[in-house]
Design a protein that fits this description.
Helices cover 44% and strands 14% of the residues. 45% of the residues are buried. The strands form three sheets. Strands 2-1-3-4-5-11 form a six-stranded parallel sheet, sandwiched between helices. Strands 7-6-8-9 form a four-stranded parallel sheet, with helices on both faces. Helix 4 runs parallel beside helix 5 and helix 6 crosses helix 7. The radius of gyration is 22 Å and the shape is elongated. Bound molecules: beta-D-glucopyranose. Beta-D-glucopyranose (BGC) binds next to loops.
Amino acid sequence: MRTTLARVTVLGIVALAALTACSEREDSSGDASAKGFAKDALIGVALPSKTSENWVLAGDLFTDGLKEAGFKSDVQYAAATGTVADQQGQIQAMVTKGAKVIIIGAADGSQLSTQVEAAQAAGAKVIAYDRLIKNTKAVDYYIAYDNFKVGQLQGQALLDGMKSRKAEGPWTIELFAGSPDDNNSTVFFNGAMDVLKPKIDAGEVVVGSGQIEFKQVTTDGWKAENAQRRMDSLMTSTYSGSKTLNGVLSPNDTLARAILTSVKGTGKDLPIVTGQDSEVESVKSIMAGEQYSTINKDTRNLVKASIEMVKTLQAGEAPTVNDEKSYDNGQKVVPAYLLAPVIVTKANAAESYANDPTLSQLTK
Ligand code: BGC
């Protein structure tokens, strides 16, 4: 019943939840709450290393929010090096301590099957947070901003930004993707290419270096220095002469700033550069007219929605999902609850961050 419930759409949830409540009351055990767990149960949160500000924020928000909801929590980050083994050990320890739900922002989404299978075998629910966990059936839910949409918004922003500087194409660009061990990197890239590829095929947009395949443009570990190194070498190999670089697809803010630093070092005009995460330094850069765009994926809302999911599971009910087709992890299509990302440029920054006490200060 639980599995069936997880697969229905949002609209059907309310009706079916009521139905479940009835059948649970008629259950021979006579105890509907037996299907949930204690209100002060331990909830584990395993996050990757702090490769961007959103992870730092998420950890603090989970610690406070789970406490406020009455749960015990164990919030851990993977170390900056030895990340995978570190996170595997942390999840295993959460299982041993009897966590009832384990929320995981995967360091490497394809290397956690042993740990999440152990979690499920011990009766815990597993929620993949922000990044999908791959190649295992032992993932109950996925909660994230709509990653494909993030990519589409980035692709469109790149085109819009370039057009605002030079009305007619062709425009010359370079492509960057995130770390290949993060499932999101492919989804962001595919979303962006959904918008850019038709323009490339039509000759309106030209990838100057010719490096157009995902595997040619990834950035190991989402590390700024890796993006900067690749940009430095592109500037030397492709743009040392008179060729103009109009735009760079950057998958997040940390990499966007590294790319801008690299171009600044050459003294050439700055291209349109996209981003993601609404990091403080990037919002400043956007307001200063350097980075062109970012994405607002308010971490507060994602953590809040995750804690709501935990509360629903505690009550023995089926959490709301709104996508049951997009996130095939190789073993199952993971029922997902997706939030909508928002593109931010200088033009709508004040409006986009109006509710954010830190970022609203930067857009005045
Ligand atoms: C997240 C991005 C983040 C990146 C690097 C991705 O999985 O979705 O928001 O920029 O990881 O930390």
